[in-house]
Amino acid sequence: MASTYLNKTFSTTGNRQKFTLSMWFKRGIVPVGNQSGTERMLFNAYQDSSNQDQIWLQSNGTINYVRNNANAVTPSQVLRDPAAWYHVVFAGDTTQGSNADRLKVYINGTQAPIGQQDTITQGSNFGAINNAQLSTFGRRNGSNDWYFDGSMANIEMVDGQQYGPEYFGSTDTATGIWKPGGSSAISDYGTNGYRLKMDTTSPGADTSGKGNTFTPSGTPTLLQGSPSNVYANLNPLDNKFSTDAVFSNGNTYVAAGGAGNGRFYSTLGMVSGKYYCEIKNVSGSGGTPLFAVTGTSNYALSGSGSPLSSQLYDYALYNGNVYNNDATVGGTWGTPSDGNIIGIAINLDNEQGGLNKLYFSINGVWQNGADPSNLTSVTGVVGITKPENMTGNGVGAYFFACGDDNSFAERRFATNFGEGFFQTTAAGTEADDNGQGLFAYDVPAGFYALNTKNLEAYG
Question: What are the backbone angles phi and psi of residue 25, rounded to the nearest 5°?
Fold first, then answer.
C-alpha cells in the first residue's frame, strides 16, 4: 500500500554483472492514456542518483528498467489490467556477446517484445544491484516518492545467474494460465540473493537460506489475494461518468467528487454461483449513495435518472428503497447512513418464478426479513433476471457496484470483496464456507467471496 515499502542495505558486494529478479505484482493506480502522476516504483537498488537500478511503472502503462539514468530496456507491452497479477522477470548478464542478451525481460512466462533497449557495455557492472548498497521494493530512493500502491508477492533475487521464467512460474495444464511455482529448482541464490516471505507475521523475511531479510517501513497491508487466487476490486478503467474519482488501496477504495455521477464496478463478473461482498458507505455529501448488482458494467448505469436503476439489470439499496428499471420493487428496507456496511448477496443458482435472487443487509442485518442461506425461502428476495436471459445492454454477467445519484455529490466507498480490509483497517474475521476471504459480518451459508478460485469452482 502507499507509503509502505521493504528495504535492506547490503554489507557485502555480490556479482554485479549477473542477476535475475522475479516478482509478481497487481497494480493499484491505473493510468488512462498518458496520465501524469501515475509513476510507481517496483524496485530500486540505490547508491546515489548516478549509480542505481530502477524498475518502475510509467505513466503510459509500460514497465521500464533504468540503469544509471539510462533507459536500459523498456518492453512495449502495456500493463494496465487492474484485476491481473503480472509476473515479471528481469535477467541480466553483461558478459553476453549480444546486447539483446545482456538484459532480458519476461512477462507472464514469455520474453517481452522490446520497445527501447540501449547499449549495455559488455562486461560492465549494473548500477547498484548486488552491490553493498540499499535495495528497496515499493519506493524510489533519493527523492523518496513514487510509492507503489498495489500488491506484491513472490519476490526472488538470484545473485550471479541469469535465469529464465521457468525457475519461478509454469503454465497451468488445465487453464493455460501462467502461475507461480517453477518447473526448475534454484540451488543457490548467491551472496545477495533472497526469496522474500510475504505473510502476516514476517513480511520481508528471507527464505532462501541466505539470511537477506528485508525490513518493512510502515505497516504492510497483507491481503487475502495472491497470484494463485485473484480477488475482485473496483475497476478504474470502467468509469464512464465520474471524471474526478480517485482510486486507492489497491482499487478497493474510491473517492468521487462532484464531476459527474459516480458509478463503480467490480473487476470480476458473475454468471452462476452464489457470492457475497461488503461495501462501506464511508462518507459524503449531496445525492444518495447507491449499492447494487448490475447486469453490465459501464453502460447499465445511464447518464440521467436514477443512475443505478435506470436500465434493465440494475438493483440498488437506494434511499430506503430497492429499484429495478426505475420501478420500486417494494418491501421493508432500511436507509444506509455514513459508516454503515452494506452486504450484498447474489444467488445465480437457485430461482424463484424464473428469476434469480438478490439480498441486501445493513451492518449484518438482512433487510426485508431475508435469509439468503435459506435457499427455498421467498421472504425478502429481490427477483433478478437470470444472466442467460439478459437482453439489451446486458452482457450475460452481473457485477457488484456502488455509486451516487447526483453529479454534484461527493461520495467515498470502501469495498471488500474478500481481501479483508476497508482501506487499511481490517474488516473482520468472517470467512466463507471455503475458508476464503475475511469479512465484517457472517457470510451466508453457501455464499462465497468473489475471487477466481470460487468462480472456477462455482461459476
Answer: -145, 150
| pLDDT tens-digit map of 242-262 | 677 888 999 999 988 766 567
**Long-range pairs, 353-359, Cβ under 8 A, ≥24:** 353/383, 354/386, 354/389, 355/383, 355/384, 355/385, 355/386, 356/383, 356/384, 356/385, 356/386, 356/387, 357/381, 357/382, 357/383, 357/384, 358/293, 358/315, 358/382, 358/383, 358/384, 359/444
3-58 pLDDT, tens digit each:
889 999 999 999 999 999 999 999 988 887 667 778 999 999 999 999 999 999 99
pLDDT 10s digits, 391-430:
765 567 899 998 877 666 788 999 999 999 999 999 999 9
| Beta carbons of 242 and 423 less than 8 angstroms apart | no
270 Cβ contact partners less than 8 Å away, ≥ 6 residues apart: 346, 348, 387, 397, 398, 399, 450, 455, 459
3-state DSSP helix/strand/coil % of the chain, to nearest 5: 5, 40, 55
| Comparison of pLDDT for 1 and 390, the residue scoring more | 390
Beta bridge partners of 412: 255, 283
What is the spatial distance between Cα 415 and Cα 365, in angstroms, rounded to a whole number?
Answer: 18
Distance CA 404, CA 314 (A): 13
Within 10 A of 365 (CB to CB), how many other CB atoms are there? Answer: 11
Length of the chain: 459
Instruction: Name, in order, each residue with C-beta under 8 angstroms of 144's C-beta and a sequence gap of 6 or more.
Output: none
Q: Read off the pLDDT band of 371 (50, 70, 90).
A: very high
Q: Measured between alpha carbons, how far is 82 from 249 in angstroms, rounded to an integer?
A: 12
Which phi-psi region, left, alpha or beta, contains residue 349 (left: φ > 0; alpha: ψ -120 to 50)? alpha
Domains of the chain plus CATH, in order, are 5-217 (2.60.120.200), 246-458 (2.60.120.920)
CA 116, CA 261: separation in Å to the nearest integer? 40
pLDDT at 300 over 50: no
CA distance 375 to 445: 10
String of DSSP letters for 375-440: TT--TTPEEE--GGG--TT--S-BEEEEEES-TT-EEEEEEESSSSEETTEE--SB--TTS---BS
